[in-house]
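Bumping with the actual sequence this time:
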Amino acid sequence: MVKNSIEYLLNDGIKILEKRDYNNPSLDLQLILMHLLNKDKIYLYTHKDEIISEETAKKYYDMVTKRNSGYPLQYMLNSQEFMGLKLYVEEGVLIPRPDTETLVEKIIKIAENAEYKDKVINILDIGTGSGAIAVSLAYYINSSNVTAIDISDTAVKVANINKKNLALENLEIIKADVFTGLNIGNKKFDIIVSNPPYIEKEEIDKLQIEVAQYEPRLALDGGNSGLIYYEKIKQIAEDIICQNGILSVEIGHNQAQAVSALFRDIKSVKKIEVDKDLYGKDRIVTAYLSDILA
């Protein structure tokens, strides 16, 4: 095997990259090399003997070493797939996860209801982060008018990059804080969605190293109870949700009962629904203010 060939680098990288519960060393190495070479996986398989330049090989080993420290691959590649869309991500925003696709799919299904036929659906995404939820809803629901808010400058920047990359004219991204003011005027929304911080403060350091050390605490920390953002969302929802509106949020797997109880106190709520993710865990709580949609 020739040194610095594609095959050599992939095999040698295995000696560096440790196997952990949250990574797939072989796949990670392939993705790093694909990124550096701007080639696909088939190219790696069909050009195993190709010699890589010393400069590229050095970048490869630097990235492999960094990945071995637990640094998220998505931040290195500035990329994460979500709902079939390639999203830009960088350090400072939460990395979109498959669990959250459950929320997006839920809203897309709701938007197909006859109640929304021939009308613009105004949607608010609270705490948009990379914009994964807002971008996906704006992309897949043609009749939507999506507003996304976040307190983080980095999040607003990244969400705007994803908006631009997908040429979404029906998406507005605003810097705003749910605790001090939404900065959205007198708008009311048919659907409010959110994947808020919901990890209990004392549990964050117990998470896998990728999350605990590298993803933004602002996007993780739900306070001592893990529920402070749901409490605030409940308070503001009463003022900004339409008469027959819907509030749907992602939750921690053990929070369905607590979040459902909070949302039952919202004026005019007709029904609370809990949906599970692909792993069979409670993941989405939806409050309906309309008998028609419920």
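The tokens above came from a reply further down the thread. Strands lie at 80-82, 85-87, 121-126, 144-150, 171-175, 189-194, 241-250, 271-276, 282-288.
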